[in-house]
Structures are given as structure tokens and as C-alpha cells.
Amino acid sequence: MLSLTTAQRDLLYLLLTTETPIGAAALGQSLHLTPRQVSYSLRSIKLWLARRHASLRQVPGVGIQLICSPLQRQRLHAELESQAKFQLILTPEQRGQLLGLVLLITPEPLTLNQLQHDLAVARTTVLKDLDVMELWLASFGLQVVRRQHRGCWIEGPELAKRQAIAALLWGDVPFSLPIITLQAGVGFDFVLQQDAALLPIIQRINSFLHELDLAEAQQQVIWAEAQLNARFSDQAISLLSLALALQQQRISAQHYLTWHPETLHWLEQQVVWPIASQLIIDYGLEQTPSARQAEIAGLSLQLVCAARERPWLKQRETDHVTHNLINRLIDLIATSYTVPALANDQLLRDGLEALIPPACNRQRFGLWVPTHQASETLSERYAAERRMADMIDRTLLATIGVTLPLDARAELILLLRAAVVRARPVQTRNILVVCPSGMATTQLLVARLKARFPKLGIFEVLSMRELSAERLAKADLVITTAPLALASVPIDVIQVHPMLHPEDIAALTQWMV
Questions:
Q1: Across 47-58, average pLDDT
Q2: Considering only CA atoms, which of 23, 8, 27, 28 is closest in space to residue 59?
Q3: 6-82 matches 430-512 in fold
Q4: How many angstroms separate the Cα of 219 from the Cα of each of 202, 212, 226, 239?
Q5: Is residue 475 a contact partner of residue 491, using CB atoms and an 8 Å limit?
Q6: Alpha-carbon gap, residue 117 to 151, rounded angstroms
Q7: Which fold would CATH assign to domain 313-423?
Q8: I want to staple 362 with a disulfide (CB 3.0 to 4.6 A). Which of 100, 160, 305, 445 is the partner?
Q9: Residues 315, 357 contacting (CB under 8 angstroms)
Q10: Contact between residue 31 and residue 11 where contact means Cβ atoms under 8 Å apart
Q11: What SS3 class is residue 21?
């Protein structure tokens, strides 16, 4: 008898409930499967359906559709519901994430025999999966210890363990498809949850997720935000909620943080310390003062490292070192751009005050944040802002010993671009538009230019024959839809498509700045 895997079952459920064609990519995205896994699973589904007088229709460019009568559809759904046993075939990436997480949350060593049983795989497979996760865990300063007759476990600081657990729960893993992600306002999305009964290791992870009270933790974060008169970013709220929920679970399991005396002293001086102390009251640490102090420090660290949407007024009043640093950076920016008005740009100052302190704290303490995705700030249009960001990084390194992490650097580049645009003087530019494709194309291009760049300047439409040295001498820019040979004339020329493509918009924006 042909039995289905859990992935094939989920695909078939989706096809049964979808009456219109659906693409393979959309199927995979809905079920956290790669295109290859979808293609492989569909082969078995076709055989399973053929024995029940149903079929799949696959049309390139249209999608995949189940072909059967409404009555057949009901019977197929009922048959799937009645089957109690499906094959659960995990990918190496899924096994690695389960293995890493169960080692992080299990206090005692786990033997290879136990891991074989819990994952239902061979001994050599467990060892290969361990090798992969060992490299990833090492990036957090954690070591997988293996001892014959004792098993394996993870050694390292408690803070590093919590950081690695948080990364796994967030879905920030070196694989294309994480098994767990955190959805803002919803909670954890564990793709293997409905199959928890099929493997002990999935049961263990599922139980652990239910121990984390994200909703209560988020209420505590919102309370702390109000007490600080602060405004955290949406992602920071989710990250803080995860950190608090995880902190409560680890404390209940009697896993406590430890700190270097200098770090502990520094954290005690921060404006967040009294607020963190209030939040820790209900954690049941009254009988262990040292653990209580360490956990207050841990929560304080999370708060001072969280991304902000506006400056902390309390910190502005008391932290003179940061205030002087921001003044120095503002002067550097205004001088480097030779735009004195930037020294009085309050939006720029507020942006730097909100961005730099938490970002530098994250860098200083090595606190994990989700992997930053490459953004458009790496493109050529932001070259000037990147050079300015390099100068700011060098100043930060010389002053406080750290540079900005990648995510904050991208934010800084956007802050700089916005400040430059605000400071740009309003001036009338003479723009020559050369479009040899005809009147209609010319009108379309000019209409798009005026809509996208209302302050670019005064547009004058010319033919190539009308381009004289006199006209060019009075112009600031030539926009053309065809190549122009003006090597002897010192004027900027930008070639664009009549439909004004994104790369054309980027080139014109860069020229304006």
C-alpha cells in the first residue's frame, strides 16, 4: 500500500481545499517546502490519486490543480482524515535545528542512542547533523562537548545559550527554511507542530514552546516602554518579548546569568535598572540575591540594546558622554558635506541619538539581532553616504571602541540621505530633454519626469539637431533616450528609458543629491 509522507499529506490537503490552479512556488511557500521537495512529493501524490480515480493537472505558467468531482473531493478528504499514520521524513536542515534546540534546552547530556531514537535516524546521520550545528553554535561562543559513554551537551555562558535559543526561535538560521518563526502578534509558527506525536524530539520542542508566555512578556515590554517614555521599534518589541519570555523560562529551570563585575557595575548605572528591577519582582528570586541581581542586569542589557524610534529624554539629561559624542558627529557631518545647516538639523540629531547608543551597545556586548538583509544602501546611488558612514565609524571606534553593526549602518545611511535632501537648497535647474522617438514618446517621458521629480527643474524638449553649444551652456542636465556624444561639453548627461525605469529614477535621484 502506498503511504504518504507528512509533507505529501499537507500538499494534498492544500490541493483539496483549493479549487483554482496554484503554482509550485506558492505551494512550497505555504508549507515551508523547497521547489525540489514540492516536485518530488507531487510524484507520489499523483500515484496515490490515480489509485482513487483522480488526477493532477499541471500547466506551466498556470499552476497545479486537482481534477475530480466534488463528491470525490469529499471522499479523498475523509480518507486523509481517517489515516492515523504518515511517514515523517525530516530534511537535514530540519534535523539540525531540532538537534541544536533540544541540546540547548536540555540540562543533562544526551547520548547518541537517545538522539537516534528521538530523531529516528542512523547514528552516522546524527553525527553529521551535529557537525553542521556545531559550527553554527560556535558563532555564539558555544561548544558542543562529546564524551564516550556520557553523551553530548553544550558548554558556554548562559547569555550565549539564550541568544542561540532566541535565534532558533526567531528563525534566524543558516538554512533556507526555518522550522520555527516568530510572527508578531501571533506567536510561534512551528511547522512540525501537528506531527509532534510522531517523534519524541518534536514533542519536546513543542512542549518547550508552550512554556514561553509571549503575550505576558509583551505586556511587560509595553509597560517598560511607557515607564521610560520611550518608543521601541516594532521588531524590538518582538525581540524584547522573546527575551523576557525566554528569561522567565530559564529562571524557572534554574539557569542563571553571570556577569563580569565591570559589566554589572555599568548596567547598574543605566536608567533602565530600576524598571528592570520592577519586572523581576515576580520571578521568585527573593531567596537568591546574586541570581536576582544578575537577571536584572540581563533585562537591563536587553532594554539598552533595543532599537528605538526616538531618543530617550531621560538619557539625554544624564548621559553627557553620549550627548558630546552626538555633537561631535553632527559637526563632522556638517563639515564633511560643507552644509552648515546640517549642524542645526533637529531630525538628524534625534535620529542619531535614537540609533547610535543601542546599536553600539549591541556591538559592544555581542548581542544577537536577526541577520540583516542586504539593502539598496549598498548600491552606487548611496556611495557618498557610505563614505560618510565610514568616517562616523572611525570616529566611534576612536571614541568608544566599537563600530556600528550592519543593520544600524544601513539605517545611518538612510538618515544621512534624508538630511542631505532636507538641506538641499531649492533652485531652478534647466533640464534639456532629448527624445528622438517622436512627439508621443516625448510627452510621456516629460509627464513621468514631472510626476516623479516635481522639483527637478524646468524641462525644455529639444531634438538632437537643436542641441547647440549655446543651449548646452545654459543647461544643468541633459536627459536623453538615445546615446549622445558630447565629450567636448562639460555637462552631465543621463540616458533613460521613456518609461522611466527604476534604475533611471535612481540615477536622477543621485544626481539631485
A1: 83
A2: 23
A3: no
A4: 29, 14, 11, 13
A5: yes
A6: 14
A7: PTS-regulatory domain, PRD (1.10.1790)
A8: 305
A9: yes
A10: yes
A11: coil
pTM score above 0.70: yes
Pair 303, 240: CB distance under 8 Å: yes
CATH tag, 430-512: 3.40.50.2300
SS3 of 139-203: the string is CCCCEEEEECCCEEEEECCHHHHHHHHHHHHHCCCCCCCCCEEEECCCEEEECCHHHHHHCHHHH
pLDDT in tens, 54-84: 888 888 888 888 888 888 888 888 877 776 6
Q: Exposed, middle or buried, 220 (CB in 10 Å: 0-12/13-18/19+)?
A: buried
Alpha-helical segments (H) within 401-457: 406-423, 439-452
Task: Identify the pLDDT of residue 1.
Answer: 44
What does the angle CA 52 – CA 56 – CA 59 come to, to the nearest 5 degrees?
170
Distance, in Å, from the CA atom of 412 to the CA atom of 390, rounded to the nearest integer, reads 11
Residues 364-399 have pLDDT tens digits of: 999 999 987 767 777 777 888 999 999 999 999 999
CA-nearest of 379, 325, 373, 332 to 353 is 325
Interatomic CA distance for residues 334 and 391, integer angstroms: 12
CATH 3.40.1190.20 fits domain 92-210: no
SS3 479: strand
Alpha helices in 17-141 (DSSP H): 24-31, 35-50, 70-82, 92-105, 112-119, 123-138
Assigned fold of 6-82:
Arc Repressor Mutant, subunit A (1.10.10)
343: nearest Cα among 357, 358, 360, 326:
326
